Amino acid sequence: MMKTLYMIGGTMGVGKTSVCQILKTKLTDCVFLDGDWCWDANPFQVNDETKAMVHKNICFLLNQFIHCSAYKNIIFCWVMHEQAIIDGILDELDKNDCRIKSISLLCNEQVLRNRLLGDVQKGIRQEDVIERSIERIPLYQTLSTEKIDTSEKTLDQIVEEILLL
Predict the structure, then answer these.
(1) Is the terminal CB of the chain with fewer CB neighbours within 10 Å at N or C?
(2) Alpha helical stretches, state H, the chain
(3) Closest to 147 in 3D by CA, of 99, 106, 108
(4) How far is Cα 1 from Cα 82, in angstroms, rounded to an integer?
(5) Over the stretch 39-93, which tens digit does the pLDDT of each residue have?
(6) Whole-angstrom Cα distance, residue 99 to residue 5?
(7) Closest Cα partner for 66 from 94, 87, 85?
(8) pLDDT tens figures, 96-134
(9) In angstroms, rounded to a whole number, what is the distance separating the alpha carbons of residues 6 and 22?
(10) Hey, is 78 helix, strand or coil?
């Protein structure tokens, strides 16, 4: 059975998780993995060891989903701001019977700032994420992915666009 793996990247606050939660309900026999779930720690530490660990966790889980007959569609989202991150994950996956749809969600700086500020005010994120996320916006233009601008679209419109790819 041919499976489809949706790899959905984008900077923090662009709407990856929200889009993927809706996309999951529109696809049959679907499972969703947010890369952040593989690295949810306090304190959050970024170093060579934790980067290698999260990479192994993600690849292990995605391969488990690929090999599980219950799933036809697999959604994975994570920041994925460098082509090497995408390629590194794909290199570790069993893709023999798997179509890959690699997508980057984008939005303009003001929309991103407003979304993140709303999250900060709700206590969901720390304020330092705003500038870090904005700095990553241009990186997505260089990736070998389908680009979807989410700036002036509803979640349902973005999901429909993904389904048409």
Answers:
(1) N
(2) 16-26, 48-67, 83-91, 109-121, 129-136, 155-163
(3) 106
(4) 30
(5) 899 998 999 999 999 999 999 999 999 999 999 999 999 999 999 999 999 999 9
(6) 6
(7) 94
(8) 999 999 999 999 999 999 999 999 999 999 999 999 999
(9) 13
(10) strand
